[in-house]
Amino acid sequence: MKGYKTYLIIGSILVIFYLVAQYNKPTPTNWAPTYAVKDKIPYGTYILYHRIKDILPKANVKQSKTAIYNTLKDKNFNKTVYLIITQRAEISKTDFDQLVNYMKVGNDVFIASYDLGKIEKNLKLQAASAMSAEGSTLNFTNPNLKTEANYGFERGIGSQFYNKLDTNKATVLGVNGNGKPNFIRYSYGKGYLYLIAEPGFYTNFNLLNKYGAEYAAKTLSYLQGNTQVIFDEYFSQQENVTTDVLRVFFKHPELKFAYYLSIFSLIIFVLYDIKRRQRIIPIADPLTNSSLAFVNVVGSVYYNERNNLDLALKKINYFMEHLRSRYYLKTNDIDSEFAQLLMDKTGINETLSKTLTKHFIQTPTMGNLSDTQLINLNESIEQFYKITQSNGTRTV
Has residue 21 got a pLDDT over 50? Predict the structure, then answer.
């Protein structure tokens, strides 16, 4: 056992240093799109919830953590706004029927979401996402709200729009730089249904920007005159339910360090209990070339699951590793300046450089990815390899 004493001491010191470093390290920014009113992270809605009275000064604001049907059933609302801001609003037919009855008597519904679920078919509505090197620009159709220069947004906010809608029923209130509608309104009796294809406009990240806050305020100005706001938390809390068995330990710092201490104690116990034993040497099987079979299995899994977003993120990660190892590029923080650096380092043209950078910024923030968008990403990456191979390897 004397031979292990030195290793135990060194190992204990290293573990202690690690725990101290973990305790004192700064908390990284959480970019998770929660859209929850309690979250002060970039993609929470803490600011909107606490400052919405700046736009609707006479309105009383309250939260709702129950389903739409349960919130509205058998209740008499008057001049009330039902506000839903979430990544995916899976509104059932029963819930939508309740919303229609709610609007007909003079109430409004405002939904900012990438996906409206089954009601998109009822509204004859279809959303899409624009990925271009020029960025996302938006404006209003109302002359009183329209600005001379379009609004521009960062981190892919504003890229979503409606590429299919029933123009006989929907009124277009806002469009992107290509004239595609992203903000529309439906009339139901005395009330209105407002739909905007992007929840990111109302996050803390966007509202801390002067022009982002101005755009969000103008969209919500259509709700003026209402005396109550029901701020929906049902859909946002559905998105953030975690099933991690250790979530309780990591939620509380005391339990978290108790967990680490238990692991550390277990490691010491195992090291002390180690005995030198001669294990049976297993017979090594001859090596077989299973690469082709492995490729077929992996390809079948991705084809059957049809998870385009997951496949796109893996392709981007693999491509980032290529840029780091071959061109010594730092890929920790991708921004608009990265396109120029990529062009200088690799020798590709400006259009391809901006297109790739746009993919890197927007794809991780998207809720889903169509086949066409995945193909465009793949073609851009393949074009990069083709150009760099024809120009010769550059390692600047």
Answer: yes
